[in-house]
Write a structure and sequence with these properties.
Shape: elongated
Strand content: 35-45%
Length: 460
């Protein structure tokens, strides 16, 4: 019995060893089919068009000064404007210094000297201006931004100087330029000689210029066409942005998004962090993302605007043609950045409730977008147009006086724009004079001359 027990143990041991090898082989050759969970990725929208900061910061107009009270003006749809904007990248500025002018010198430069005035829509940070032209030297004028760049020819020195003007700050600086007097006369001014003649209107300061002595605040002025002009009234169809595009554009993981319906029928989409407030009757959204301070250092205005541009590029994009309008501090010390929509050379202005399609407004903190408000209407197909005769500057002033709409001495600016009128599936763009008044609301005056002669329609 003992002799049979030993061989049995040996056989059992061999079977155990073989079984062990078989199980090991099965484990090696049959790995479990593991599924790795990918981290959530931010799904970027597919914008209609991305833009660079340089494409969004462009002059509002170019005014040509010929002396003897003669001025002409070119806008974005005019060839002289395109020439000047293309030449700006070649301009070099050096020897910067703070500057002040007497009232007499101001009048001489504005009314008598050959010059070229590049006008922006509002104050543009100097660091952004330096991306449009070349600054050869450092500047230390204390000016944060400018709304005008004025080139003028100083005959006694045979030099073209540049004035960097900040109406908002009431300050300026001067520099020498690389522009030759010959180029100013024979290229730039020659190109603008056929543009519509303008009347220069100087904004009245607290004291009349005639009683000011010594250095004076910078002159602020605007320009009105001397004669009637032609302008198109357009009608466009529009395409609303779908909820699917919104979800794709603004949320990291769409499966986490839930929908909340408020009592006033406002719809809120949220993933627990960021949210979109959708107002159907306004065809607009407000995007909100709690600010997270990633860095404490102070950002420049250029960096703040660039951050806003990058955000829009990645989130729904620029549905239509927009341009940078301004950056300013909000009531709670956050940065409010505005981009305005344009058709051709003219800005869109929405005054009628509830639908407004004229701006994209961003509130940012330390360069991070906290809120953004924008329209969901994308101008789609051009349906039709109607050419209209637009009242001149003198006719505009006469209308304002005759109808007692305002004191013309209080006008600080006047410009042409398209007022939006939303219909069922279409948007009418109506030529309108926007008249800005000191310490008052704006006037919105239909710009077309009445058929049958005499006068024009006025809306306040």
């Amino acid at each position: 019995m003992k002799r049979m027990l030993e061989p049995a143990k040996t056989v059992l041991l061999i079977l155990l060893v073989v079984a062990s090898f078989c199980l090991t082989a099965m484990l090696w050759s049959n790995q479990p089919n593991l599924q790795f969970i990918e981290p959530a990725q931010y799904t970027e929208s597919k914008p209609v068009k991305e833009k660079t900061l340089e494409q969004l910061v462009t002059p509002e107009s170019v005014v040509f000064h010929y002396g003897e009270e003669r001025h002409t003006r070119a806008v974005a749809t005019d060839a002289p404007y395109s020439l000047i904007v293309s030449e700006m990248s070649k301009w070099i500025f050096l020897d910067f210094s703070p500057f002040a002018l007497s009232n007499e010198k101001w009048g001489e430069i504005a009314r008598e000297k050959l010059g070229l005035e590049v006008r922006f829509r509002s104050t543009v940070p100097l660091s952004i201006v330096s991306r449009l032209v070349t600054f050869r030297d450092e500047y230390d004028s204390g000016i944060k931004g400018i709304d005008r760049l004025w080139l003028y020819y100083e005959k006694d020195e045979d030099v073209v100087y540049a004035l960097f003007l900040s109406t908002e700050e009431g300050r300026m600086m001067r520099s020498r330029t690389s522009i030759s007097p010959k180029d100013l006369r024979e290229s730039y001014l020659a190109s603008g000689s056929s543009m519509p003649e303008q009347i220069m209107k100087v904004v009245r300061p607290e004291r009349t210029y005639s009683v000011l002595e010594g250095p004076t605040p910078i002159w602020s002025m605007y320009y009105l066409p001397k004669n009637q002009m032609r302008m198109q009234q357009f009608r466009y169809s529009y395409v609303p942005v779908t909820n699917e595009r919104l979800m794709e554009a603004y949320f990291i993981d769409q499966s986490l998004v839930r929908q909340i319906m408020e009592r006033d029928k406002t719809v809120i989409f949220t993933d627990g962090s960021r949210s979109i407030q959708l107002r159907a009757e306004q065809q607009a959204i407000t995007f909100t993302d709690p600010a997270y301070q990633q860095r404490a250092q102070e950002l420049s205005d250029e960096e703040k605007v660039q951050s806003a541009v990058t955000f829009i590029n990645k989130h729904l994009g620029w549905l239509d043609d927009f341009h940078f309008e301004r950056i300013k501090k909000s009531y709670n010390e956050k940065d409010l950045i505005t981009f305005r929509q344009y058709v051709g050379a003219y800005p869109l202005v929405s005054t009628s409730e509830p639908i407004q399609i004229d701006t994209i407004q961003i509130t940012s903190e330390a360069g991070q977008v906290v809120t953004m408000s924008r329209s969901l209407l994308d101008l789609d197909k051009y349906i039709g147009n109607n050419e209209q005769t637009i009242m001149s500057g003198p006719e505009l002033y006469k209308l304002i006086r005759d109808k007692k709409l305002a004191d013309t001495e209080q006008i600080t600016n006047a410009y042409l724009a398209y007022q939006t009128v939303i219909g069922d599936g279409y948007v009418d763009l109506v030529p309108t004079w926007i008249v800005e008044l000191a310490n008052q609301g704006n006037l919105y005056i239909l710009a077309r001359v009445k058929q049958g002669g005499g006068g024009a329609h006025g809306l306040e």
